[in-house]
Amino acid sequence: MLYQITGKHIDIGEALQTHVKTELGSTVEKYAGRPTDANVTFSKSGHEFVCEATVHLSTGLTAQAKAHATEIYAAFDGCNEKMDKQLRRYKRRLKDHHRERSEPVELMGASSYILASDKDDAESEPETLQPMIIAEMETRIPSLSVGEAVMQMELAGAPVLVFRNEGKDGLNVVYRREDGNIGWIDPN
């Protein structure tokens, strides 16, 4: 597995990198047989250290975890525990997913935009109905079944996931509803 361990405005020593590779490697190998790469980023937020980890599996699924602590090793250990819990929860489905799918998840390119919010001018009228684009990025839309999309959304800790439905070749959306259930939008 390839590791990219970085720090945002903090120095990451060899001992911490070795600890991350050993612990995260053993956690991921327990549940997912074929991880491809892991990105671990450390940063400082006030008096706390923040650790964010993203593990890409060979099937195209991605698991993410994030933790905060006053010590950098404790932040990673908390992040690793969350990753362990996510992968353990989906272990059976991950293994079934490997058996059913012989090819990796197909990804379709798309553009992603960040629009400026109008929170400052809540009472005033906007000058135009066109929103202001403040950032443009490339994103990938996976081709998944509905069950795989729900699992991917929960593994990533995301509130919503746009995907191409393998059964119908149309774009679909799964999202977490306020009542805790999962919603699925399947256009006609």
Automatic annotation (TrEMBL):
Entry keyword Nucleotide-binding: no
GO molecular function, one term: ribosomal small subunit binding
Subcellular location: Cytoplasm
Organism: Lutimaribacter saemankumensis
GO-annotated biological processes: negative regulation of translational elongation
Quaternary structure, from the entry: Interacts with 100S ribosomes.
Gene Ontology CC terms, in alphabetical order: cytosolic small ribosomal subunit
Keywords: Cytoplasm, Translation regulation
Pfam families cross-referenced by the UniProt entry: Ribosom_S30AE_C, Ribosomal_S30AE
InterPro entries: HPF/YfiA_ribosome-assoc, HPF_long/plastid, RHF-like, RHF/RaiA, Ribosom_S30AE_C, Ribosom_S30AE_C_sf
Sigma 54 modulation/S30EA ribosomal protein C-terminal domain ranges (all copies): 130-183
Functional note: Required for dimerization of active 70S ribosomes into 100S ribosomes in stationary phase; 100S ribosomes are translationally inactive and sometimes present during exponential growth.
SUPFAM superfamilies in the cross-refs: Ribosome binding protein Y (YfiA homologue)
Gene that produces this protein: hpf
Family: Belongs to the HPF/YfiA ribosome-associated protein family. Long HPF subfamily.
Protein's UniProt name: Ribosome hibernation promoting factor
